[in-house]
Design brief:
One of its GO terms (molecular function) is helicase activity. With 465 residues, the chain is α+β, with helices and mostly antiparallel strands. The protein has helices at residues 19-28, 58-70, 84-97, 161-170, 175-190, 210-221, 262-273, 334-339, 342-359, 369-379, 381-389, 400-414, 422-432, and strands spanning 38-41, 44-48, 53-56, 107-108, 121-124, 127-130, 135-137, 143-144, 199-203, 226-227, 248-251, 278-282, 285-290, 295-300, 317-321, 390-399, 437-439, 442-443, 446-447, 450-456. Strand 2 and strand 3 (53-56) form a beta hairpin.
């Protein structure tokens, strides 16, 4: 739900031929102390709402400007009659006058540095929390932050009893899985940290708890900070627009249809999780350029098959495996019960964040290793072939024909109907293992095309899988 802009009227005298002066007078009604409460950042306008800075869509800003101009007079005392041209001129001047030169947010406004490193500050409904010290201070207009948690920080909230009981039902003997979920929820809901370059895949049967986890993550992060794309939309021309400014991207019941452009989807997921700068086309607006903050959490009944010979994409996913189904025994009041514990879940998440920052990395649970291997096999069969059938070493050397013949045998045994040509095989092999080189040594008086760094595994070779 969009927050209402506080209506403020400040009668002013305006020279219709001086749009910059008009823009500055318009801004005065949103001033907070010595800080301008209306700013333009990365091509969009933002307004201070008392706790955070909210994106102000251009139609809404135009409406506010029209209303304000209608209450103004010129210097001869005549009422201003706002025209499209006047409003456009004032908007152009406004964007220039309130332009904010920040590389990213959250960040302190230039010339208005406050207390605490921006990355350690969490905007809560009841103030600004320094997460390492758990010290709460007043909301601060000087911190340009566009997200706010819809939760009060309460250091005496206690343990989230119902939530912990729910997690124990999902993973009764797997504390590693619960720890990963705790750290992941903290990373996504409480920070803009994308440095881990990971996404989370939750795999399980229907009614296994996937949806409940996504709902709690959504409510803790704040619905305004969450988007819900689909795999298919990530391959569409304007499919990335919904990710702009969103900490969390939730894909529920994720499936890849046969018509989806898998190559484009995989490329976009790699670029976003890899913290690459992207240019995002937007309908009827100029392209947005920057690094998208979204961390992807994907819930699915089965592993997605996204071809990627290099296996780079599959390595970006952490996996949580759910095996129990509650179909027919659902607690339809569970989400409502858990939402009452959000302040306590916030404390639980902060504990997970502390642990993650001490360790410095996210840890894949051992219980999901089988799914990790399966996802890699789906994404990059060539990687699994090398793992199963080859020796990968600087001193290894094997003829291309022997490796390709072994690849054909492996594909037949694995039930793969389209092994491709020898050229396709070589292309995928080099994408997955760029250290491999093509050589042409002489064998028995003739040159043989070989791969240096790879050969077929023979009986007696150590199993390096």
């Amino acid at each position: 739900m969009t927050e209402a802009v506080p209506m403020r009227r400040r009668a002013a005298k305006v020279d219709p031929k001086a749009p910059l002066d008009a823009a500055r007078s318009f801004c005065l009604q949103y001033r907070v102390g010595n800080v301008n409460g209306l700013r333009c950042w990365n091509g969009d306008h933002y307004l201070w709402m008392g706790t955070h800075w909210r994106h102000l869509p251009e139609p809404e800003l135009r409406a506010l400007l029209y209303q304000w101009l209608q209450g103004c007079t010129d210097y001869q005392g005549q009422e201003i009659k706002p025209t499209r041209r006047l409003v456009n001129d004032v908007l152009d001047a406004l964007a220039s006058d309130v332009y904010l030169a920040l590389a990213s947010e959250p960040n302190w406004l230039p010339g208005h540095a406050g207390e605490g490193a921006p990355g350690n500050l969490l905007v809560c409904r009841n103030g600004l929390l320094d997460m390492p010290s758990r010290k709460l201070q007043q909301s601060d207009v000087r911190l340009f932050a566009t997200t706010v948690l819809p939760v009060d920080f309460n250091p005496r909230a206690g343990q989230p009893v119902a939530w912990l009981r729910f997690l124990a039902m999902l993973w009764p003997d797997d504390p590693e899985a619960i720890a990963l979920l705790q750290e992941w929820i903290a990373l996504c809901a409480l920070t803009d940290d994308t440095s881990h370059q990971k996404a989370l895949l939750i795999v399980g049967p229907r009614r296994s708890g996937k949806g409940t986890i996504l709902r709690i993550l959504r409510e803790l992060a704040g619905p305004a900070n969450v988007c819900s794309p689909t795999f298919a939309s990530l391959g569409m021309p304007f499919g990335l627009q919904s990710l702009i400014g969103k900490r969390v991207a939730l894909l529920s019941d994720a499936r890849l249809s046969g018509r989806a452009d898998v190559a484009v989807i995989a490329e976009n997921l790699l670029r976003i999780t890899g913290e690459d700068a992207v240019s995002v086309p937007r309908k009827h607006q100029i392209d947005w350029n920057g690094t998208l903050p979204s961390r992807f959490t994907v819930a699915t009944n089965e592993l997605p098959a996204m071809a990627d010979a290099s296996a780079a994409l599959s390595s970006r996913f952490l996996i949580l495996r759910l095996t129990r189904t509650f179909y027919g025994a659902e607690d339809h009041q569970l989400t409502a019960k858990l939402l009452q514990e959000l302040p306590a879940i916030l404390l639980w998440a902060l504990d997970g964040l502390d642990r993650l920052r001490r360790r410095g990395r996210l840890v894949q649970p051992a219980s999901s290793q089988e799914l990790v291997d399966e996802l890699e096999a789906l994404a990059s069969p060539i990687t699994m072939f090398v793992r199963d059938c080859c020796v990968l070493a600087p001193t290894a050397e094997g003829s291309i024909s022997s490796l390709y013949d072994r690849w054909l045998d492996w594909c037949r045994d694995a039930g793969r109907d389209h092994p491709g040509t020898a050229a396709d095989f070589g292309k995928k092999l080099r994408a997955a293992f760029p250290q491999i080189r093509t050589t042409q040594p002489r064998r028995q008086g003739r040159q043989v095309r070989c791969y240096a760094g790879l050969r077929v595994r023979h009986v007696g070779d150590p199993d390096t899988r």
